[in-house]
Every structure is written in C-alpha cells, then in structure tokens.
Design goal:
Length: 235
C-alpha cells in the first residue's frame, strides 16, 4: 500500500463520524467466515469522496471556472477532475493540495460538507414544546416548533395562541428579526409607531429590536406562527 493510500485511510478515519466508526468496528468484529459486502464496507469512504467532490464542484462554480480551466490550474486532466467531482475516485493528498491552491481555499475546506451536521426537527400536531417567554405572564401561550442546533444563526419558530384571558402587550423587544403569519382570529399588531390589522393569511416581517406586539385583540382566539431569527454574535 502506497503512502498516499495510507494517508487517505487516515483521513477517512479522521473525518468519519464516531457512529460510523462504531458501525464499522462492530461489523469487523462480527464477520467470521462470511465475506463482508465490499460496497457496504466502503460506504464511509465513498461518502467522504462524494463530499469532497461536491465541495470541489461548488467552489469551481462559485468562481465561474469550467472543468477544463480548473483542471489546467491544478495540473489535472479534465477526466480526472470529473471523477473527483462525481466522487468516483479517491484523490491523493497532493491532488487535494493542488485543487486547494487552484481554488484559493484551505485543504480543510474541501472536507467541510462531510463534517457539517444536517439537522431536522419533526413536531407532531399539537406537540410543540410549551415555553415560557416574556409574554407568558400576559396569557400568551408559546409552543416551540423547532430550534437550530448547529448553525451560526439562531432560528426559533413558535406557534402563539392568545385567548380570552390574554392581555395586549405591544412592548416586546429583542435582537434579530421576526416574521409572523396569521392562522386564526384578528389582531391589531403594533411595530414601533405603526399598527397593522392582521387576519388569517396576513404576514408581517420586522426588525424585532423595535417595540412590537399585539395592541388590540379583535377576534379571539388568535393563533399565529412567529419565526424569530437572530445571530448569536450580534446578541
């Protein structure tokens, strides 16, 4: 096995998630007389190759380069570059370095897509997490429908319900921006010095740093979706 092959395998071990490494270890422990499915065993490595290829293609298109142009810059053949972008080959470390120089990005940037965790949150109808916020004392009911975990931007979607015992509270203030979408009822909603009469289907998007909130509950119950977005670094 050549040096590039050894180093490539070390990179696979480094960037494959702990869960995948555990799966591979369990598989190696359980295989006795039976031969493991080669395509299955190599899936983690192929996943890394596809992630690298996808990043190379993304950067190439971002810089408006053709396959031939990038291949020429990196001293590769167009065919080899196509194989790399399609995840059909394991590029050597020398090739990765040549591509990073040609694209003017660090080598680690080519692994970024593989390292990123893609999260999803599913909430069944009526099962949003009950959250206490500033308006809770005014009878506003908040159901958190999700939360961004691995992101530089905080996104919090809420289902907000106002009933007969709810009070108006037009002085909310917090960082970021907010988007609300009316689902039920009618409310007069204030933002700074302007009021908006919102009915089902209406929406409002605003800078949440200005005082805002329901000023008049015209028709109850009122239900609306509120999505608050904020960068932690700007908080």
């Amino acid at each position: 096995m050549g040096l590039d092959s050894v180093l490539w395998n070390e990179l696979v071990v480094k960037f494959v998630s702990s869960e995948e490494r555990m799966t591979l270890a369990m598989r190696n422990h359980q295989v006795t007389s039976e031969q493991a499915d080669p395509a299955h065993v190599q899936s983690a490595g192929n996943q890394l190759e596809r992630a690298i290829g996808s990043q190379v293609r993304r950067y190439r298109k971002q810089f408006a380069l053709t396959v031939a142009q990038l291949a020429d810059r990196a001293s590769l053949s167009s065919g080899m570059l196509s194989k790399i972008e399609n995840g059909n080959t394991s590029p050597s470390l020398a090739t990765l370095r040549a591509l990073s120089i040609a694209l003017n990005v660090p080598v680690t940037a080519l692994f970024r897509q593989f390292e990123e965790q893609r999260d999803a949150t599913f909430v069944s109808a009526g099962q949003g997490l009950q959250i206490e916020r500033r308006g809770t004392r005014a009878g506003h009911q908040y159901q958190l429908l999700g939360h961004s975990i691995h992101s530089e931007v905080s996104v919090e979607p809420y289902l907000i319900t106002l009933r007969e015992d709810s009070e108006v509270f037009p002085i909310f203030q917090h960082g970021g921006v907010e988007f609300i979408y009316m689902l039920q009822g009618i409310v007069v909603y204030r933002h700074a010095n302007t009021t908006y009469r919102l009915s089902p289907g209406d929406s409002l998007f605003f800078d949440a740093d200005a005082p805002h909130g329901p000023e008049e509950l015209v028709q109850l119950p009122v239900r609306f979706l509120s999505v608050i977005t904020n960068s932690p670094h700007s908080a």
